[in-house]
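note to self — DONT lose this again. spent like an hour looking for the file last time. sequence + predicted structure for the chain T wanted, 268 res
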Amino acid sequence: MQTQFLLCHAMLETISEGIINCLIITNSSEANVQLIRIHEHIFARDPTIASVWRRQTFSAAVKTCTPEMSLSILYEQMPELMTHLKGALPTSGGSSILEHAYAFSQMLHGSRSASGDAFYCAFVSEIASPLFPWQIELVKRCMKSERGELDCVGATIFPGLVKVTRESNGESGEYLQTVVRRAQVICECAMGLLPVNVQPAAWDAPQPLQMPVQNNYGSQGPSPQAGQVPVDYIHNGYEIPGSVQPPINYRGLQSPPLNGYSTPTPLT
């Protein structure tokens, strides 16, 4: 069971970093990189125009994620695991998992948002990171948290989503990032994993927000405020007492702290 959860976590990291947080328009990785840079340049100048550009560009994108594209993404994101799997494509119910993820990415980036100027990124909570209620929901009961003890993320079951927008102050406007869907995770005690030693200061000190390498939107914004007041949160009926609102950890370049909420707003 532990292996199944860890493989799920690895697949979600691949989907988030290799598909959702990228603009896969063609079957050429080099061309996609250039399109990502074009989008970043347009988004930095005018997010509304960037939204129109995305919709028009995705209307001419490749319709499906071919087996060749899937293998390229998998070998790029998790080469060692793919060596053990001998190049087998992950499937569920007889269909490719990455193909479903690609269809979701097309819907996410190619549709018109209510605000008209938002860009969505996915995030996966890191294994052995603290249980931050602001960014996660528990899918199984955490007995250690109910006893007031510290526990960590064992694996992520479903990624979270962040909406990236920009203040209307011209090119000098700051980038605002709002958690619109928290990641679903299972804690270490529910998985039966041995806890990883973490220094006590690491639980209390605000961590820098790191956005994916493929999407480096915005400059450094204000730092999170220290000394946050503990609040009790309830996720899927499971209470995590004495928790605070921390920033999300992303892989890649640093970007401004999230402008999020304790309860995610509806996806728009």
